[in-house]
Amino acid sequence: MAHVLKSTIAFLAAALLGHTAQAGMGLAELAAGATSGPVTVFYPSEAAEARVDRGPFVFDAASEAPPSPGNRRLVVISHGSPSSPWVHVDLARALVAAGFTVALPEHLGDNARSHGDSGPVSWKRRPLEVSAAIDRLAQEPRWGKALDFGAVGMFGMSAGGHTALTLAGGRWSPARLLAHCQEHLESDFHSCAGPSFSLDGGLLDGIKKAMVRTVLDTKLADTASYGHVDPRITAIVAGVPFAADFDPHSLRQPRATLGIVSARGDRWLVPRYHSDFVLARCERCVHLLDLPTGGHGALLSPLPPDLSGAIGSLVGDPPEFRREAEVARVNVTVAGFFQRELTRSTPK
Question: pTM above the 0.90 mark?
Answer without folding.
Answer: yes
